[in-house]
Amino acid sequence: MSPLLPFLVFAFVASITPGPTNLLAMSSSARFGLRASLPIVFGGCLASAGLVLAVGLGAGVTLLTRPEIAAVLGWAGALWLSWLGWKIASAEIAQDPDAVTDKPLGAGAAALMQVINPKPWTVALAVVGVFMSTSGAPAWLLALLFLLMAIPCMLLWAWLGLKTRHWLHSAVAMRRFNLLMGVLLAGSGWFGLLG
Fold this sequence. Notes:
Elements: H1 5-16, H2 20-32, H3 34-65, H4 67-89, H5 107-116, H6 118-135, H7 139-164, H8 171-194
Helix pairs in contact: 1-6, 1-7, 2-3, 2-7, 2-8, 3-4, 3-5, 3-6, 3-7, 4-5, 4-8
Membrane topology: Multi-pass membrane protein
Keywords: Cell membrane, Membrane, Transmembrane, Transmembrane helix
Subcellular location: Cell membrane
């Protein structure tokens, strides 16, 4: 068995389970379509892989020895996710999807969400703490493999959002979906921080 197989299983589970970026990709895809949501997918995945690389190169030591930095990141992340949740929950609803004037978030917003969200940092710390030493793989390889695992997982969430469009034929249904996604997104930040 390859020493990287346990890491690949971990990367899959960490990437496919619901989290703020997955919910954001799903919500964006339901509203704006898959193509318009690709920056969120790639921005979030690149940032997650970047965190694995940064932690592997030593940033994890700072987080472990300076818990106040992790606390500030946690509060900033919860506030950012609350703002994004509010934006989704209060988004403009139009009968004609082409008439919507709002624009989807870009790669930078998704990347920032990863940087200030505690879940990706926890994942990165686990990758380095557990899998870097047991597999003997360098940080850059683990980051690359994590990226290659995260992209299809995030694309699946965006595809699920695209498929929900078939159920969201009315403005009322779309408003309920946006409200649910907004509450889940904001709640995920606070649950992660306070839970």
